Structures are given as structure tokens and as C-alpha cells.
């Protein structure tokens, strides 16, 4: 199938984990891509790996923590004469820090990547999105609604909750222009970084984590990046043409309890 044929998607955090899984799934469905990431070499490697799908693949290396990054992205997209139809705000930041120890630097880092960047990047490409009756997909988290023991998440949960509110408010505002806005709230996903962090745990900690997964996930397993990518394909496609303002849990049933 070519659900996204003749569409161009810009994906932040597009060289790793969930972002790259979305990129691959989009390319497989015929979409052209603009990948945003920090590592120029890694982006180049990802471009080559996606060429098999026959789509146009572009990449822009920039650090989204840089205050000039949004304007750099807009400039590069304009230079390449690209019109963005689908925007995936995937890049984000999360650290488990107790509330009493969360300093202004950590709070600002969460706010910048999880709230300000999606807000400003969407604003920057709004004209393109209106012109093509396109859509926005924000990657949120179950931590906006569901807390876990030993995972102090005030800064992360605050910002993902804000992203959910942004999703709904923007959907309401731009709906009359034909633009759809949705969010996906993943549970724990086996990204390369997640697997690396898990391997750093000692045997007892790994055993506790395995037990916890079976007790809090009705499907008794964590997700794969492709699970999030499959939902993103659906939301980006015309099959979801009457869906907007939704926050969709893709979490193995975690938020049912």
C-alpha cells in the first residue's frame, strides 16, 4: 500500500528509536522524509538505509536545544523547496529526578524539548500544513497520566501533560483549516536507548523490572518501536481523515489500571 504517497513528513528525533521507526514506516508507505537529528553522521547512515524505499530522503543536523534551531530548519527546508504535509514532533527529553532535586536547568531542558520545540516548530510550518490540509502528530507519553513507583517524573509528566493539552487546543483552532492534530502516548518501548539502560541494571533489578512489566501491562510485555510507527502511519493517512484532537495510548493496556 501507499498510504502516504506524495506526502512529505518532517520528523524530529528521526535518526533513532521511535523516530526512525516512524521514518521507515512512512517511507515504506511512499512518504518523502525530512529527518531532524543532532548527529550528522548517523543521519547520513539513516538516509542510505531508507533509500531502498525509493522516497526522497533529506536530513538536517541541528541541536533542538539551540535557540536558533527552528529557524535553521525552516531555512534548510525552504532552500530545498520542500513543503511539509506531516509534522511528527517526536524529539523529547525525560529524566527521573525527585521533585525536591529538580533544578531550573533540568526543568528548562524538559520544557524546551517537550513543549517549546513542538509548539514553535508547528507554528513555523503551519502555513504549509494549512496549504496541504496536513496533520501533526505529537509523541507524548503515558507519564502524562500514569505514574510508577520509583520513577519520580514531575518535570517529565508536567511537560507531556502540556503537550497533550497543546494537541487538543491546536486541533480545535486549526480544524476549520483542514489541519488535523493528534498525539500518541506510548508505554515503555524497546528502543536502543531503553535496552542499553536495562542492560546496565544488575540481575535483581532486571528481575524486578520483568515482574513489574507482567503485573502492570495487561499484555505482559513492553512495546516495540514499530508499534508506535504503525499508529503514526494510520494517523498521518487519509484513513484517519475524521480523527483530530485525540491522545492515543499505545501502551499494551498500561493505562487501563
Topology:
Elements: E1 8-12, H1 17-28, E2 32-37, H2 40-50, E3 57-61, H3 69-79, E4 86-89, H4 104-124, H5 126-131, E5 135-139, H6 154-174, E6 180-186, H7 192-199, H8 203-216, H9 225-236, E7 247-250
Parallel strand pairs: 1-2, 1-4, 2-3, 4-5, 5-6, 6-7
Helix pairs in contact: 1-9, 4-6
Molecular structure report:
With 257 residues, the chain is an alpha/beta fold. The protein has one domain: Rossmann fold (3-Layer(aba) Sandwich), CATH 3.40.50.720. The protein has helices spanning 17-28, 40-50, 69-79, 104-124, 126-131, 154-174, 192-199, 203-216, 225-236, and strands spanning 8-12, 32-37, 57-61, 86-89, 135-139, 180-186, 247-250. Strand 5, helix 6 and strand 6 (180-186) form a beta-alpha-beta unit. Helix 1 packs across helix 9 and helix 4 runs parallel beside helix 6. The chain is globular, with a radius of gyration of 18 Å. The N and C termini lie far apart (36 Å). Its EC number is 1.-.-.-. It comes from Sporomusa termitida.
